[in-house]
Amino acid sequence: MDIYTNPQKDAYVTGIAKLFMMPTDSGGIPAVAVGKRAFIFISSVYTILTILIFMVGWNLIIAIIMAFWPTHDDPNRQTVLVALWNSGEPMNAMTLTASYCKRVTRFMLKGNPTESPPGSGAKGAQSHQGAAGQGSKTSSNGICPTIESVLPVREEQNGTSEGSAASNAKCGVSDLLWSLLFVFIALVMTVGNVIAGILVPVQLSMGNVAPAAKDHIFYPNKLLYEITDDNGAGFSKLGSLFAPSALRALGSIEASKVTVRERVYIDVQTFYGSVHAIYNYNVTGVDMGLQSDPKLQLRVKGSCRTDYTWLTSSTEQEDTYTLFGGNETLSVKYQPLMDLPPMLRFALDYKSKGSNTSYAMIINTGGLYTYTPGQDPWYTTKKSGVNASVAYQVARGRPVLSCWEDSKWHLNDKEVDPWNLGKLPGLRLHSLWVEVFQWEFGTPRVMKVGHAGGQSALKSASYAMPPSYILNAGASTIGSDLERLVLAAWVSSRNVLRDTTTYDKDGMQNLAQGPGGSVEAASAQFVLQSGDVVTLSARILISVPAVLLLLFILQKSLIWVLGYSDFGNRSLIPGEKRDVVALLATQLYRGLDQRINSRNWEHTESLIPFVYPSGVEGPIVKTAPDEKPGGANTQRPANADNR
Length: 643
Fold this sequence. Notes:
- The protein is of the alpha+beta class.
- Helices cover about 35% and strands about 20% of the residues.
- Among the domains are: about 220-505, no CATH class; about 585-635, no CATH class.
- It has helices at about 35-70, 75-85, 90-110, 120-130, 175-205, 220-225, 235-255, 255-260, 285-290, 430-440, 445-455, 480-495, 495-500, 540-560, 580, 585-595, and strands spanning about 15-25, 25-35, 205, 210, 265-270, 275-285, 295-305, 310-315, 320, 330-335, 345-350, 355-365, 370, 380-385, 390-395, 400-410, 415, 525-530, 535, 625, 635.
- The strands form six sheets. Strands 5, 6, 7, 11, 12, 16 and 17 form a seven-stranded antiparallel β-sheet that branches. Strands 1-2-19-3 form a four-stranded antiparallel β-sheet. A three-stranded antiparallel β-sheet has the order 8-9-10, with no helix packed on it.
- A hairpin with a 3-residue loop joins β8 (about 310-315) and β9 (about 320).
- The longest helix has about 35 residues, at about 35-70.
- It is elongated.
- The protein starts with 14 loop residues before the first strand and ends in a 6-residue tail after the last strand.
C-alpha cells in the first residue's frame, strides 16, 4: 500500500548480496533490494536470459527429435528434420512445419498431383523421369519419393539399392500427426517465449521495500522521561518526538483516504442529537513490515457515543465534566476568542483492565464563531450577539464522546491482550519490539494520534484557517472528526517500526542500544518502504540463470552424443556419420558440391567447411578412394582436418 514518506537513503540497506525476507500475507519471501537504476539494468539482463532459455530449450527439443524420431529413410521426414534443424527459432519452425502439414493434407485429400492423367501413357512418365533424373524412383506406396530421387545412393554389387527407402517410407496420416505435434511444440515455445519475456521482469519486481539499517533505529527510553518531578520536561520531549509521525499519519489519509478506508470499518449513526459510532480495523505484520512475524495481527474494535450526563455544570466561563462517573472532573473554558482553533482533550479510564480500555474525548468548540449554522452535537450553533461580525457561535455545553476500545494480538489462532504480547505462542518478535509494542498499543491508538496531532487532529480544524479560526459548523460533524482519527490511528499503527528510523533523537537515550552502545542486527528485522528502491525476488534471480545453465548442459550433452551415434537412422549424406553436422545447410551444400564437382573439402565436421583455392600452395593432401554416386570412385581426403 503506497502510504509512506521516503526515508533517508542511509536508513535502509540495498545490494544484490543483501538477502532479506520480504513479508507477505503467505509468509516471508527471500528478496534483495536495489536502486531504480540498478533494477533497469538487471531487468534487461533477465529479459535476455529468458530469451536465451527458450533458444537453448528449442535447440534441446530439436536434438531430442533428431535422436528419437524415426525417419525410416523417408525423404519427407528427412526434409522435415533439415527444416527444423535449420529453422533457428520456433516461430520459423512452426511456419515451415505448418506449410508441410498443408501439403500432406492436400495430398491425402486430392492424391499425387504429379501422377500422369489417364490416357497420357508413357510420355508423361518419361517426362517426369527426365525431370527427376535418371535415378529417380518412387516409393512402393506411390506417395513419397525415396531418397534416391534427391541424392543417388550407392548400390550393391548385385545392383540392388542399399537401404532402400521404398519399403520403409511412412507418409500420410503418420507424417501429418507427427508434423502437427512439431507445430504445436513450436507454437508453445513461441508463445511461451513472449509470455515469459513479459512476466519474468514483472515477477522479478515485488515491491518497494528494503531492510532497515540497524544504526538508524531509535526509540526513547520512556521510563526516563515519563516522570512527574521534572516540571513536565520529559513529557514535553516525548511530545516533540512523536508529533511529526502523528502529523504524517494525519496528512497521509488526506492523500490516500480511499485506500486506507478499505482497511478500516467505521459506521456513524446520528439521531435526535445523539451520535453512536463503531469502528474496527486489523494491522498485520505485513503492514508493519515485520520480517520475523508477517502473520502477526493486531485486531482492534471500538465504539463511541455522545453522553450529556457527564456535563455537571455550565456557566458563562466554563463547562465542567465528571469523568467516568467518579470524582475526577475536567473543565473546558467557554471563551469566544477568535484566535483559538477547535481542539480535543482526551481522558483515559485507568480502572480499565485487560484488553478493553475506556476513554473519552472532550471538545472545546463552545463559544467559537462560525459563518454557517450547525446541528451536530459538537457544532450546534446559536445566533451571535448584536455587535458580533460573525453570524453564529457554537453553543456551550457540548457533550462528551464516551468510548471504549478492545485490542488483541493474534497469531496462529492464539490471542493475547497488548500487555502480554511476549506470551503469545509462536512469536519470534525481538524483545525490543515486544517492549515497544506494549507501550505503543497498551492504550487506544486514537488517543495517541489525537493528542500528538494537536491542532491538526480534528477534521473541522482544516476548515478553520488562522489567524481567526472561524469554523464552518455546517460542514463539521463528530463522524468526520472520528473518521479522521481512526484512519490516522491505522496508519500510525502501521508505521510504528518505520517511525523508529525517523525520530529526531535530540540527545535522548536510545532504548534500542545495547550495553556496548550499538543496536543489535536482530532488531532490524523489518522493512522500510521507499520509492527509490525496487525489491527483487531472490528465487527468480537464482532460478533463471540456473534453468539456463541446466538446459545448456543438457543440450550440449545430447548434441555430443548425437555426434557419435546415429540412433539407428541412416545419414542424410552417404558416408557421413555425424547427422548433427550433416544437417546444417552449409554441410548439405558441401555434400552436394563434393559429389557433383568432386572438390576436395576440408574441415568437414566444422560448422562451415572450407575449400582451399587451387592456386594456394600447401601440403600435398593424400587422398583415398571413396565411392562416387552411382558406384564410381571419387577422390576425397584421407586425413581431413576435422577441427
